[in-house]
Each structure stands twice: as structure tokens, then as C-alpha cells.
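Okay, is this right?
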Amino acid sequence: MNPILRVEHVTKQFGDYTALDDVSLEVPRGQVYGLLGPNGAGKTTLIRIINRITAPDSGAVWFDDHLLAPEDVARIGYLPEERGLYKGMKVGEQAIYFARLKGLSRREAVSRLKEWFERFGIEEWWNKRVSELSKGMAQKVQFIVTVLHRPELLIFDEPFSGFDPVNANLLKEEMLALRDQGATIIFSTHNMASVEEVCDHITLINRSRNILTGRLEDIRREHGSNVYEVRFAGDSELLQQRLSQATTTIKLTAGVGDSTLRFKLNAESELRGVVGLINDAVDIRSLSEVIPSMNEIFINKVSQQGGVAE
């Protein structure tokens, strides 16, 4: 299946500052695609190019197998990091206004909005003024008006910023539900914990360049470093003695019952042989590879690039 979005060799400069430097990526249909990177890496500039808010200096953006055109913006829902609602308007009135801008009739807008307001537990705020909303409430309203016209591509720029854990989880569940209904989601963030919970694919941008792209699980496994953890019952000192020539101990956690040992295979060692050594020394309860987190991969890749740009 062809990707819904292709970015090809996009470069964007603002004066002497290069915001994007020859960036390419493909966003698969029906997936949550993480656009990752530290602040100032170029993520928001790329999002604005996809939304035709600004244009690239060179390169191209393809949407649904054709060059991105003005009419395609109606098929995209965009929740920017810089939120903004008209404080003097009533909540329902403003939500209807935004829905009408997206092409919905007033009747259809009210029907869909009532359903979403009930789902988010904010129906009693329909006739309140926007100025009375908390930051979290206002963000819920903006999320709703972003997804209301059921766009094929949704772009959320730091959507969990300012949310408490309960409401952040609600938002994650709704994002995954939208994906399961066929929407494609680009999720821009520098919060690696939320990436592991919702993303299928990722691109990591640092210093204006794409430095890592792929399926989330593939990337995590590719960046594994032969580290394993065994949970066992028996003599921990004997176990470490037996493994001393084949592994390097990282951490031993002794328990009243079972204990755990985290270790790294030495370059010349094979897992099969190490398992035999463990089995000869103690009773194995479980053995698993320790896959690095996206946060660890993020820090490592950015550090290799010389850190975050000033």
C-alpha cells in the first residue's frame, strides 16, 4: 500500500538558519507516526510545510500519490502546539464555527460535537465562555474540532502538553481509536514515554536532519546491545562465578525468593552457551533480552550528532 504522505528532500531556511536540511520520510496509511526530536530540531517547520502554512525552499511533499495541493488541506486535521481559542465566545458556539470552516453543516456539526463533548465529559461547558475553561478543558475542545471533520491525516504537535495523566491517557485512547477507524496520525513530540505507547513508526530529527527512521519495534531491536536479564533461584555468587568469562555483570538484585541478574554478553560469547552455564549453576525462572527504550535510543543518537543545536 502506498504511503499517504511522502516528504522528498525538503530543505527550508530562514535567513542564515537552516530549519530543515534535505529531509525525506514516508508516512504509512493507518498508522501512528512519531515525528521526534528535541526542541528546535525542525519538527514544527516540517509540519507547517505539510499544512501549506509555509513552503519548502526545495524538495517536494506528496499526499495520496500526488503533489500536495491547496485542496488537500481540507483532508488534514492539525492541532498546533500553540493553542488558541477566542476567549469571549461560548464554547459550543466557537466549536460550531470551526466545524463550519471545515465544511460541515450546522446540523451535522452540532450532532458530532454533542457526541464528542459527552465522550470527553465536557457537555456542561457548552454554554460557558472559553475564558472560563481550564487549560486542559480548552485543549479537549481543540482536539475535538481538529478531528471533527474526520480527516484522513491528523497531525498533533505536542498534544499531551499540560494534560494530567488521566486526561493524557484519554487522549491516547482516542488517538488509537481514530487510527483503528482508518485515520493516519502524525504525532510530534519530544516525550519518549508516550511514543512507545502510541507510535507504530518514527522519524527522529535532530539539527534539521532526519537521523533515524523505521518501525518502532524494529528500531528498538536493532539498537539492542546483547544485554539480558535472568530471573533465577539459587546461589548468585556461584552464578556470577560461572558467567565471569562469558559475560559482564551489569546489575544483581537479590530477593528473598528469586533474584535477577542483568548481564551483557562478551563479544566472543553466544547466548546458547551462556544459557547452559546459567542452567548448570541455578534454576532459571525466566530469561529475556533487555531492549533499549526509545528514550535511551533518542539520547544516544542525539549525542552521536553532537547534542542538541543551540
Summary: The longest strand covers residues 17-27. Residues 225-289 form a domain with the Alpha-Beta Plaits fold (CATH 3.30.70.1150). The chain has two domains: 5-85+133-221, 225-289.
